[in-house]
Write a structure and sequence with these properties.
- This protein has 174 residues and is of the alpha+beta class.
- The protein has 5 helices and 8 strands; from the N terminus they run ββαααβββαβαββ.
- It has an 8-stranded mixed sheet with strand order 1-2-3-4-5-6-8-7, with helices on both faces.
- α1 crosses α3.
- The radius of gyration is 15 Å and the shape is globular.
- The relative contact order is 0.15.
């Protein structure tokens, strides 16, 4: 069961990740419709999820929150690799494929962007998306992110090299 709501929005809330949420995250991260877009083709065990929780979720320097609709988890979002000296961080997220197309990722990114700029005083956010993941690109673009570059044939999905598109958003862009 998700922890308390940390950020509240009109359509989603972002809750703290609790140890009880690991089975949900474990199921999602091993769903082929999810892991193909995560830059990681390795199967994840429950021990891997526990290590992620202990070494990443609860560690200082990153923010990871469950995307919830009426208290029910539908995905996860995070500010990764926060660099307070440069004022930048990377945004990462994924949503349960059964909940795709309902605006959850777009709403969650909007909440996280507001938090990053207004509470954490960050100046820039970046995010990467596989060129084949048009839905993720639309989420970023709807939130004001602009394409800053392309890493040609940087990813490998389903036996093919694919480009990775780098997006950026400046606090002054809002």
């Amino acid at each position: 069961m998700p922890g308390p709501a940390f950020l509240r929005g009109d359509t989603v809330d972002l809750h703290t990740v609790e140890e009880d949420d690991l089975p949900f995250l474990h199921r999602l991260v091993n769903d082929p419709r999810v892991w193909r877009s995560l830059f990681n083709a390795d199967p994840q065990t429950m021990a891997d999820e526990q290590a992620f929780y202990e070494n990443v979720v609860t560690a200082d320097g990153e923010v990871h929150l469950l995307i919830c609709d009426d208290g029910d988890p539908v995905g996860i979002i995070g500010l990764n690799s926060i660099d307070p000296s440069w004022g930048i961080a990377e945004v990462g997220y994924y949503v349960d494929p059964d909940a795709h197309g309902q605006g959850y990722a777009t709403a969650a990114v909007a909440l996280l962007v507001e938090y990053a700029f207004d509470q954490r005083r960050l100046e820039k956010l970046k995010a990467d998306a596989l060129a084949t993941n048009e839905a993720s690109q639309r989420v970023l673009e709807k939130n004001g992110f602009v394409e800053e570059g392309r890493f040609r044939e940087h990813g490998y999905v389903d036996g093919e090299r694919v480009d990775v598109v780098r997006y950026g958003l400046l606090a002054s862009d809002r």
